[in-house]
Amino acid sequence: xxxxxxxxxxxxxxxxxxxxxxxxxxxxxxxxxxxxxxxxxxxxxxxxxxxxxxxxxxxxxxxxxxxxxxxxxxxxxxxxxxxxxxxxxxxxxxxxxxxxxxxxxxxxxxxxxxxxxxxxxxxxxxxxxxxxxxxxxx
Length: 138
Known about the structure:
Number of domains: 1
Order of helices and strands: HEEEHEEEEH
Oligomer: single chain
CATH class: Alpha Beta
Helix content: 25-40%
Strand content: 35-45%
Strand order of the largest sheet: 1-2-3-7-6-5-4
CATH architecture: 2-Layer Sandwich
Radius of gyration: 17 Å
Distance between the termini: 62 Å
CATH topology: TATA-Binding Protein
Largest sheet: 7 strands, antiparallel
C-alpha cells in the first residue's frame, strides 16, 4: 500500500513538472509588452532583435540597476558553433543568477535568465523586462 502511494505521488509530481516545464509568458506584464518569453526548465528565454554586444551591455546595465552583485562573466564562448556570453551575479541570500546571451544571427540574440537552482519566473521576468527596456533605450 505504501509503495503504491509513493509511486502515485512520484508520478503525479513528475507529470506536473513536465506540464509546467515550458510555458509562454509576457516579458513585461506591467506595461503591456508585446514581447514574449519561454519558461523552459526553470530558465526564462527570449529572443531580441539586436546584436550580442548590445544585449551584453544591456544585461550588465540591467543587473546593476536592479542592485544585483555581478561576480563574473565569460565572453564569446563557442558552444555548438554559436557564440555565447554568460554573466554571473548574486542576489541577497546568495542565490546565483546566470544571464546567457547566445548569438542566433548577427542581428538577433537569445537572452536567457536563470535564478538559483529551481528558478524564479517572476524575478526572471523583472530582469528580462529591464534588459528589454535597456535594449530599446540604446
